[in-house]
Specification:
single chain, Rossmann fold, N-(1-d-carboxylethyl)-l-norvaline Dehydrogenase, domain 2, 5-stranded parallel beta sheet, 13% strand, globular
């Protein structure tokens, strides 16, 4: 029996995440049509968002912010019809994703509010976690395309509620990284080698996957972006705007926003959001990456195949 051909897929926005999503869709057998505001040397690169909507019925959007999302859906609106599903993965305010939904639905097309968790490496592996706001039946239609890049797909509620969840979880990540940088500053000033913090956190209630990822990078001055500082700053600004709308204060979030703004002013915007640690002078001579580190009790030779400055501090069992 002949295999049923997969439908065309559309991807708009080819940054750190969108480019990897498009690659994974191609590998999975989807004819994938793409567009980015800055031209890229990508297969099936089209000349506009509208052309992507003309070529594919399910369009995944990975643009930089809410204004870019609204610009994109307005540009493709005249092409949309009842057969289309627009899936917004951009982190926006709830109000912006609701406005994008209105534009799409006015054309009798369908819309999913679908931000995600997972950074560059998760996207590479097709291990993103999608948070879904919107109709369950629409999700089921889009699921085969989403599954290609998903570790999990988590329904959250209505359109706008997934966006709120994404902002809330990014707020947690930002504040955690800011507090880790401050804790490491205190240790550094106290003369404690920073590699010791991994050994302690492994046994502490504050142990987390985020700490496992970011503490070694902060010590090793490895700020290759998994999630950029400029994008995290954008997200905490959304959180602060939501707080103002609701009449509440978010002092920890405001503190991280101040640290991030100072980092942007120093030219760190395209670095990872953990680059706020640079305010405290990491690394320095007494915190240089050692030639060999202990992992599960065994020395790791300096010439082992591993990216420079990326190492295990947490003794995880593989």
């Amino acid at each position: 029996m002949a295999r049923t051909a997969k439908p065309n897929a559309g991807v708009i926005g080819l940054g750190i995440i969108g480019s990897r999503v498009a690659t994974n869709l191609r590998r999975a057998g989807f004819q994938t049509w793409v567009w980015n505001r800055t031209p890229r040397a990508e297969p099936n690169f089209l000349s506009s968002a509208a052309e992507v909507a003309d070529a594919a019925k399910i369009i995944q959007i990975f643009v930089s912010d809410g204004p870019a999302l609204l610009e994109t859906v307005k540009a493709m609106a005249h092409v949309l019809g009842p057969e289309h599903i627009v899936v917004n993965h951009t982190t926006t305010s709830p109000g912006e994703t609701l406005e994008a939904s209105r534009i799409v639905c006015d054309r009798h097309a369908q819309y999913l509010d679908a931000p995600f968790t997972g950074s560059r490496d998760a996207a590479e592996a097709g291990e993103l976690v999608f948070l879904i706001g919107g109709d369950a039946a629409t999700l089921e239609k889009a699921r085969p395309q989403l599954d290609v890049n998903a570790r999990e797909i988590l329904p959250i509620g209505e359109i706008g509620q997934a966006a709120a969840m994404k902002i809330a979880t990014n707020l947690v990540a930002a504040v955690m990284v800011g507090s880790l940088a401050e804790a490491m500053c205190l240790l550094d000033k106290s003369g404690v080698p920073l590699i010791k913090i991994g050994e302690v956190l492994r046994r502490h209630v504050a142990h987390s996957t985020l700490a496992e990822m970011k503490v070694p990078a902060m010590i090793g001055d490895d700020f290759d972006p998994r999630f950029s500082l400029k994008h995290m700053f954008k997200d905490v600004q959304i959180a602060l705007a939501m707080a103002e709308e609701y009449g509440v204060d978010l002092p920890e979030t405001a503190a991280y926003a101040g640290s991030a703004m100072a980092g942007l002013q120093k030219g760190w915007g395209d670095m990872d959001f953990s680059s706020v640690a640079r305010h405290y002078g990491f690394p320095n001579e007494k915190n240089e990456v050692p030639e060999a580190l202990l992992k599960n009790g065994d020395a790791v030779p300096a010439d082992a195949e591993r990216k420079k400055k990326r190492f295990s501090l947490f003794g995880r069992k593989d």
